[in-house]
Design brief:
The structure holds two protein chains of two kinds.
Chain A lengths: L5 E3 L15 H8 L4 E6 L12 E5 L13 E5 L7 E11 L1 E5 L9 H4 L2 E2 L3 E9 L1
Antiparallel strand pairs in A: 1-5, 2-3, 3-8, 4-5, 4-8, 5-6, 6-7
Chain B lengths: L1 H11 L4 E3 L12 H19 L8 H36 L2 H6 L3 H17 L3 H21 L11
Helix pairs in contact in B: 2-3, 2-6, 3-5, 5-6
The chains are: A mainly beta, B mainly alpha.
């Protein structure tokens, strides 16, 4: 169950920290199918994520705790349900999340489509792979 | 060792795609598509204004006139609307906040251009048609300036 009734608005842009590389523990979780692998297409998350890079998704990351600004998320596009996108969480407001691409010049994100319903969240990116 | 194994697995096993691009993933934008549609609307406006009204007693000529007038009007309507759509896509998908900082009148320029598209549809006015081309030329210049390229504005007619 995703936490609701959140209102976490940071004073500044979220930290665009790089994702950690995969370690033995995360690889084991992937083998056990607790994490899922996705391949990134596009440059809107540069320099954190590159075209063709693989990442591991934790689909249960927000089952017990709320999303945190700075998290890299996998979420459904708000107007194109078939499109799965990767963005960074700027803030949570009510039942919506405001997400941005790290590469603002080449990103279509909440600056254009506004808050994304929190129900569109598919999980948190844990690490790059490998 | 683990890293090499995972790299090998990553290359072999397929993975679903997580998109990290803008809504126009091809990244191909060009105000030329709006310019071509607008030029067609301008051309139809001129042709409509140049049509000679035949003698009403000449039934065949009168029918031909109405047929031609209707066709030109339909094309003007269609092409002006297409120009509007092309402009709106360019406005909302290509241009980003940093562009607005560099060109503070960007929003007003697009808004006026879209309004002019509507005016070209509603009226039969060469003034509005030429006004639309003027706005598109301005957008063309801004667009190519953001690309760092000097592309002269050229029209077919």
């Amino acid at each position: 169950m995703v936490a609701r009734e959140l209102n976490v608005v940071p004073d500044s842009q979220p930290e665009t920290r790089r994702l950690a590389p995969c370690n033995a523990w995360l690889a084991a979780l992937w083998v056990l199918r607790r994490l899922r692998r996705y391949r990134v297409a596009g440059a809107s998350m540069e320099p954190s994520l590159h075209e063709g890079q693989s990442v591991l998704l934790n689909p249960r990351a927000y089952s017990t705790k709320a999303p945190c600004p700075g998290d890299v998320l996998l979420l459904r596009h708000p107007t194109r349900a078939h499109l799965i996108t990767v963005k960074r969480l700027a803030y949570v407001q009510g039942d919506g999340v405001y997400v941005l691409g790290d590469n603002a010049e080449s990103s279509t994100d909440s600056r254009h489509y506004g808050l994304v319903p929190i129900t569109h969240l598919l999980g948190r990116i844990e690490c790059t792979f490998p | 060792m683990l890293n090499r194994l995972l790299t090998a697995l990553d290359q072999v096993l397929p993975a679903p795609t997580a998109h990290a691009h803008c809504d126009g993933p091809c990244g191909v934008y060009d105000p030329a598509s709006a310019r071509i549609a607008a030029e067609a609307a301008v051309s139809m406006t001129k042709k409509l204004l140049d049509l000679e009204v035949p003698d009403a007693s000449n039934k065949a000529a009168y029918a031909k006139y109405h047929n031609t007038f209707s066709r030109y009007t339909a094309i003007k309507e269609q092409q002006a609307h297409l120009a509007k759509e092309e402009l709106l896509v360019l406005w909302t998908d290509y241009f980003k906040p940093p562009h607005l900082e560099a060109y503070p009148d960007l929003h007003e320029t697009f808004w006026k251009a879209a309004k002019e598209c509507s005016a070209v549809k509603v009226e039969l006015s060469l003034e509005h048609a030429n006004g639309l081309m003027g706005h598109i030329e301005k957008i063309h210049n801004i667009f190519w300036a953001t690309k760092g390229k000097d592309v002269p504005f050229t029209t077919v007619s």
